[in-house]
Amino acid sequence: MAHDPTTSRTSPDRGLATRAVHTGERPPQPQFRPTVTPIYPGSTYVYDDIEVMDAALAGDETKYVYTRYGNPTTTALEEVIANLEGTATAIGFASGMAAVHTAIISSIGPGSTILATRDLYGHTFATLQDHFSTWGVKTELVDFLDLEATAAAIDEYSPDLIVCETITNPLMKVTDVPAIARLARDADATLLVDSTFTPPVLYRPADDGAHLVVHSMTKYIAGHGDVTGGIVATSRMRRRQLGDMAKLNGSVLGPFEAWLALRGVKTLPLRYKQQCQNALTVAQALEANPRVGLVNYPGLEGHASHATAKRLFGDRGYGAMISFTIKDATKEDVFNYLEALELIIPATSLGDIYTLSLYPAMASHRSMPLEDREQIGIGDDLVRLSVGIEDAGDIIADLEQAIRRASA
């Protein structure tokens, strides 16, 4: 009869403390499958065959031995994101910035050159300009909407990595990803696309040539304001590089966060469709408001990126992010607007089921110098809006009363 370590550990001959610790743990593998992927909170995994454990420690991706190396709950999430993005695989991270940071590191070395779009999320901008410059990495900025200038910059700087966002934060410019991907391919450069504003139900950058597709899962993928996480969808070769780095720097996604994001992604198509519909209605109302200046939303026919958005997104929508200026508003006026909101939440994130509003100069682009902000069009009168799934009429009414009070 085979030795049963479980029975031995929980034998009545063992002490009370021993039985309290071990009884109920590591039961035989069940003969059923749960309907929902379980949370596997264990930090370590054991095998009856030590040779199998040896294979797991050697890097066998089908085995689990330590959660910093891989976790079954996280793997389930990575599989669904890869499936939706149309990539071979994906890898989760503890935050969106951890995903961005590791994806950049995997593509450069000391002395590399990065070419990035001028209109970037503030913390990505700071990472490129401040952090990587200390490694001797040079970052050059260009307006990616100007394809001739972008091509000229690629010829001049021969970048190792090109970084862009599908819809830029916070000016909502739509990058012609297929065109940038062609330029990257001709220059033998890696293309990293932050697609946080455009989850795969709207657009899949890898289909058009992106090598690394990054999401802050804190946003649309999880969708309920209760998760911090990031993910990179990519090839198996690049995933191995990213995985090795994650093991070393410990930026791995936890199983509880992975489970919440996995639950959230189930309703992503439904949530995002409603958010896109609401956003178009809200943007049209803002455009008609005499107290509002410029409205940045690619679904509006007058937006500079409308044609590009229509070509890339088809009839799936134009995203759920809007930015707009309050006419002649000062910083104090924008603060009055935020404080006057009743339904809309003045919070720093986006992509939730709730409508959220923030002040880029105070939040997302706080780390960007004033002169840089003003140069790209992020003035003290600019407000960002993440449209939720509430009734569009209620969102519009709250915006109108808050803008009226800010302008009083």
What does this structure look like?
This protein is an alpha/beta fold. The protein folds into two domains: 72-265, Aspartate Aminotransferase, domain 2 (3-Layer(aba) Sandwich); 268-407, Aspartate Aminotransferase, domain 1. It is built from 15 helices and eleven strands. It has helices spanning 5-9, 16-22, 50-57, 72-85, 96-105, 122-131, 147-157, 177-186, 236-249, 255-265, 268-287, 306-313, 331-340, 370-376, 392-407, and strands at 89-93, 113-117, 138-142, 161-165, 190-194, 212-216, 230-234, 292-296, 321-326, 356-358, 382-386. The strands form two sheets. It has a seven-stranded mixed sheet with strand order 1-7-6-5-4-2-3, sandwiched between helices. α7 (147-157) packs parallel to α8 (177-186), α11 (268-287) packs across α15 and α13 packs across α15. The longest helix has 20 residues, at 268-287. The termini are far apart.
Query: Class by helix and strand content?
Result: alpha/beta
- Main β-sheet: number of strands, strand sense, barrel status? 7 strands, mixed
Biggest sheet strand line-up: 1-7-6-5-4-2-3
Q: What portion of the residues fall into strands of 2 or more residues?
A: 5-15%
CATH superfamily of the largest domain: Type I PLP-dependent aspartate aminotransferase-like (Major domain)
CATH topology of the largest domain: Aspartate Aminotransferase, domain 2
Number of domains: 2
Low-confidence stretches: none
Q: Gap between N and C termini, in Å?
A: 85 Å
| Shape call | globular
